[in-house]
Amino acid sequence: MKLKILIVIAIIIALVLALIGVVVKQNYISERTSSFRVNIATTTSLYQTGLINDLLENFRDWLRNQTGVNVEFSILAKGSGEALRLLADGSACIGFTHAPPLEYQYMSQGLIERLMIFAYNEFIIVGPRSDPAKVSEASDAVDAFKRIYAAGEKGLAKFVSRGDMSGTNVRELQLWKLAGLNPEGEQWYLKSSQGMAQTLLMAENLGAYTLTDKGTYLSLVKQGRLRDLTVLLEDPKHLLNVYSIYISTSPYCSNPEVYFIALKLKIYLSHEGQELIESRYSGLFNPVDDREEMLLSAWKTLSRLG
Q1: Integer angstrom CA distances of residue 291 from 238, 273, 295, 300
Q2: Which of 166, 176, 196, 225 qualifies as a cystine partner to 216, CB 3.0-4.6 A?
Q3: Nearest to 299 by CA among 40, 97, 164
Q4: What angle do CA 123, 248, 88 make, to 5 degrees?
Q5: Are 133 and 157 in contact (CB under 8 A)?
Q6: pTM of the model
Q7: H helices of the chain, where?
Q8: pLDDT tens for residues 79-105?
Q9: What distance in Å separates the CA atoms of residue 245 and residue 262, rounded to the nearest whole number?
């Protein structure tokens, strides 16, 4: 009985000390500096749709009102592969990405830590309205890629790949693998080596197929920049697109200010950030809401597809 009482007392003391630690750390940040800068790496789809700037600007105002602290962000818009590399070497301390297999690799190596999954949407397969590969008749995304490959070999179709190890490119490579095909080196298989918006415009100009996140595609349609390229296939099983936020474990990012911002950003994205995504980006991105377990399960499955 005495042992149980002692354990309870020890737990209470530990919780009180932890709470004191958090308060002291926050006061330390507020007193030590009222303004600092953090490098942020982000995937291009969040940048080109305007979501990342919107979230960070609103977070700055929220943080200032909550704590009196001013933070400025230097945003590095890259594909997810490059964004994760920047996190790994400490060039950026916080990152927004959507490439589960690469994220899993970096997490396994202890180079990054996930803060949370904060949004999701879907990848879609788009192409010319004439649809020479009959993608619109495919049973799923894997079947669609088989059709594109067959049409490409006959000289009837082209495919534009990001070719940059972005989250979109990683998913595309997963689909080719699931289809048992390798288009590398084929004349009809082209690489943009650019962001999603530029890749979509290239596909539009060439009358080619491509894989894209839904947000960037709809954003360009809204701007009137895509006229022929149309949605040919949606496939929730293979094309769910999960966005996560990570913090670097590099020594260059180990200062208290970074952890303070990461903690506050996680709190903001769990509430006010979700409301912003819902109210301003409906149709482009979805807030996580009460789907955390489903999305985490999907992330785990996608991370192991290689």
Answers
A1: 18, 15, 6, 14
A2: 196
A3: 97
A4: 80
A5: yes
A6: 0.81
A7: 2-32, 44-48, 51-67, 80-88, 100-108, 141-153, 167-179, 196-206, 214-222, 236-239, 256-270, 272-280, 292-303
A8: 899 999 999 999 999 999 999 999 999
A9: 9
